[in-house]
Amino acid sequence: MVLHGIFPTVTPVVTKVLPAVRTLDRFGISDRAGTVIVSAALQDVGIISESNVLNVVDKNKIRRGRTKARTTILSQIIKDYDHDQFGLYFDGRKDRTLSMEDNRRKVVIEELIN
Prior knowledge:
Blueprint: H1 13-26, H2 31-45, H3 59-80, E1 90-101, E2 104-113
Antiparallel strand pairs: 1-2
């Protein structure tokens, strides 16, 4: 991004944040907590300082990054998915279901199918 030739070219942080967003998503960290973690990491590295606030990460950048990462992963899964494969698995568990017959409770034992 160049503004009238005054400022140097700045690469957006969102592309740099995507690996961090995947990690936040993997561990179930919220957008706000993720914002604090990523901002602290960028501040430690020196990308963010009191004089340079161009690359500040807010919760909406984290949310957009998560949406982009999930869309990318989903499209990859759909592309790699083999539609000819189908699986039906049995774990051998017996399911005890309570049913009513003639106004009396009866336990029916059925094999669980997943």
